[in-house]
Amino acid sequence: MTDDRWHLDELDLPAYLARTGLAARRPSIEALDELHTAHVRTFPFENIDVLLRQHPGVQLGAVAEKFVERGRGGYCFEHGTLFAAVLERLGYDVERHLGRVGDPGTAGRTHMTVVVTIEGRRYLCDPGFGMSLLRPILLEHGAQDDRDGWAYRVQRIDEGGAGAAWRLERFRDEEWQRMHTTDEVPVRPVDLVMGHHFTSTFPGSHFTQRLILARHGDNRHTTVSPEGLTTRVPGRPTTRTDVAAEDLPALLREHGVTLSEEEVQRLVALWPGMLDAA
């Protein structure tokens, strides 16, 4: 029986699978790996609708229409909402969770992850981080995974009265760096609405102030922001080049973002202000 709270019937599963180039498979860790990688490489991470003050919200119907039908991407609440629904429709045992990006002592619960249980073992799926996992990682203390040179690690931490939480780390610049901390508190649809409302409207949220467009390609990860075009390739130094307003239309196309000409021009008009604030 599916959970109607998440309105899973609003997802056109065949259309999603067509966009990712996959066929439906029975639940398994191999199929989950394939699906996670395909999702991350198909749908970019971006906050354009937040910047343009036109975000449709994080309900499944709006997210599916945006990603699958309009050729767009989004940020964690959207990626997580869509990916969790796809997994449930395919028969996986799915949990939705929230996390804190950065220092868990000061950061709000503004990140969404998905946990899947297969044959009694839990796996953390993270398709909606700026530099997302390419595939799920085992949710056990000290678990490590290296996919194509991208190395990650999970650490179990004790949050006192709040219980256990899971810190995801990535190996960069010769050290393990914290990405976010996911807790075990059950998540309801209203929690995602509230988290999205904060990140998309609060004046201090970086999503309301600057473009963040990121995507995994073949053996490279690129990010477009006011700091420039940042390219990361495993085992090589990170490179960064400046981005001018006139560069944005081509970069949007290269990163798989489909916008109307009017939307492109509105984003271009905002770029000088973002550069001044960078």
UniProtKB/TrEMBL annotation:
InterPro entries: Arylamine_N-AcTrfase, Papain-like_cys_pep_sf. Gene3D superfamilies: Arylamine N-acetyltransferase, Cysteine proteinases. Residues 220-239 are annotated as: Disordered. It comes from the Bacteria. Residues 230-239 have a biased composition (Low complexity). It holds the Pfam family Acetyltransf_2. Belongs to the arylamine N-acetyltransferase family. PANTHER family: ARYLAMINE N-ACETYLTRANSFERASE 4-RELATED, N-HYDROXYARYLAMINE O-ACETYLTRANSFERASE. This is Arylamine N-acetyltransferase. It comes from Luteipulveratus flavus.
